[in-house]
Amino acid sequence: MADTRKIYVLNGPNLNMLGTREPEIYGFDTLDDIADRMEDVATRAHVELDFRQSNHEGHLIDWVQDAHREGAHAILINPGGLTHTSIALHDAIKSVTVPVIEIHLSNPHKREEFRHKSYVGMAAKGTIAGFGPMSYMLALEAALEL
């Protein structure tokens, strides 16, 4: 379908370890489990998802720029630990016109103090956090309303 909207879902460092990494914080769902649930909703909404994960900051920056060049409808991003450290990712988001929604499985404000500041959130249209895997679904619903 040529007129299908495309939404990028970008995932940062260590999110490939979901399901086994600190399940008391992140739960037992894998990134593939989350992607499958999102794909079901996207298909019904006639939206194409481009779901990606990397442990490398530069890949995420390249993908933000790719989404812009390709005229994506939105970018959903869980930047992982880069949330609190990456001014480069902040700048990449600020440099594009695609709306960006930041996602977090946990609520960073209920965790260690160093997690309270989000450089990504400062550049994003909005943030959805603290609802586990449902954070991704809520972000997708928000993106579909944009």
UniProtKB/TrEMBL annotation:
* Pfam short name (any one): DHquinase_II
Pathway in which this enzyme or protein is active? Metabolic intermediate biosynthesis; chorismate biosynthesis; chorismate from D-erythrose 4-phosphate and phosphoenolpyruvate: step 3/7
Which positions carry the signal peptide feature in this UniProt record?
A: none
For this protein, what is any one GO molecular function term?
3-dehydroquinate dehydratase activity
Q: What class of enzyme is it?
A: lyase
| Highest taxon, organism lineage | Bacteria
What the entry lists under PROSITE patterns is as follows:
DEHYDROQUINASE_II
Keywords recorded for this protein, A-Z: Amino-acid biosynthesis, Aromatic amino acid biosynthesis, Lyase
Query: Site annotated as Transition state stabilizer: where?
Result: R21
EC number of this enzyme: 4.2.1.10
- The catalytic residues are Y26, H104
Which residues hold substrate?
A: N78, H84, D91, L105, S106, R115
| Database matches in InterPro entries | DHquinase_II (IPR001874), DHquinase_II_CS (IPR018509), DHquinase_II_sf (IPR036441)
**Per the record, what are the reactions this protein catalyses?**
3-dehydroquinate = 3-dehydroshikimate + H2O
User: Its biological function?
Assistant: Catalyzes a trans-dehydration via an enolate intermediate.
| Membership in a protein family | Belongs to the type-II 3-dehydroquinase family.
Subunit structure of this chain's protein: Homododecamer.
Tell me what this protein is called. Answer: 3-dehydroquinate dehydratase
Q: Which gene encodes it?
A: aroQ
